[in-house]
Amino acid sequence: MAPSSIAVRELPLFPLPEVVLFPGRPLPLHIFEFRYRMMMNTILESDRRFGVLMWDQVQGKPALVGCCAEIVQFHRLPDDRMKVWTLGQQRFRVLDYVREKPYRVGLVEWIEDNPPTQDLRPLSNNVSQLLQDVVRLSAKLTGQEIELPETIPDLPTELSYWVASNLYGVADEQQSLLEMQDTAARLDREAEILTSTRNHLAARTVLKDTLGETSE
User: Fold this and answer.
1) Does residue 83 or residue 205 have the better pLDDT?
2) How far, in Å, CA of 208 to CA of 137, rounded?
3) 42-67 residues labelled b (16+ CB within 10 A) or e (exposed)
4) What SS3 string covers the chain?
5) Does residue 167 contact residue 131 with C-beta atoms inside 8 Å?
6) What is the pTM of this model?
7) Residues 50, 74: contact at Cβ < 8 Å?
8) What confidence tens digit (pLDDT) does each residue in 170-202 have?
9) What angle do CA 157, 159, 163 make, to 5 degrees?
10) How far apart are the first and last CA of the chain?
11) Comparing C-alpha atoms, which of 15, 24, 17 is closest to residue 166?
12) Residues β-bridged to residue 29
């Protein structure tokens, strides 16, 4: 697709293995590599924004779809390392690389979910209920008090990002959810994942109750 709108811009890019950032979600980073210290110093003098891309370790290259991060706070350490606290903003697709060294800079276009063709509230309500079930069963299984934070978004698209960002150990699945441009499809997939998790936890809970099994 030829860049033809104001939605296209150059963006410094920060590839990270096993990390997928979503809009509205925080990402703390410890910057120690020289090239990325250079990047952060440059960004701090401009609009404090850079792109986070998951590094595909199988293909040996970054994904094409990522999320823009904005530095909201930073702290310089004595040896020139830096701690930065960032917040996810818009998603983007890399159209081309403007340069590769000392760090990647890409020509990117912003992407958003397509306008919904259905009422998303039943889907988001289902996902919210599944989250409650998973937390309740996890608490029962571990004997710990576990509660969902009060800050979980109510709006369907924001909820879908929150759920996706809180999946652990499945970066490829998270990347797939990030690339989706259909909120309903994202919520549907998350409902599948949460249903599978709930059923697994329910089975273990029954086993624990029946056999007096201690949780692993």
Assistant:
1) 83
2) 12
3) ebeeeeebbbbbbbbeeeeebbebbb
4) CCCCCCCEEEEEEEEEECCCCCCCCEEEEEECCHHHHHHHHHHHCCCCEEEEEEEECCCCEECCEEEEEEEEEEEECCCCCEEEEEEEEEEEEEEEEEECCCCCEEEEEEECCCCCCCCCHHHHHHHHHHHHHHHHHHHHHHCCCCCCCCCCCCCHHHHHHHHHHCCCCCHHHHHHHHHCCCHHHHHHHHHHHHHHHHHHHHHHHHHHHHHCCCCC
5) no
6) 0.89
7) no
8) 999 999 999 999 999 999 999 999 999 999 998
9) 120
10) 51
11) 24
12) 84
Residue appearing with tokens 């994904």 = 63
Pairing of strands 105-111, 82-99: antiparallel
Between CA 146 and CA 50 the distance in angstroms is: 34
* Among 192, 183, 190, residue whose Cα is nearest residue 156: 183
Category of 132 on φ-ψ map: left (φ > 0), alpha (ψ -120 to 50) or beta: alpha
CA-to-CA distance for 45 and 215, rounded, in angstroms? 51
* Nearest in space to 188 (alpha carbons), one of 115, 120, 131, 134: 120
Query: What are 104-143's pLDDT values in tens digits?
Result: 999 999 999 999 999 999 999 999 999 999 999 988 888 8
- Point out which residues pair with 9 in neighbouring strands: 108
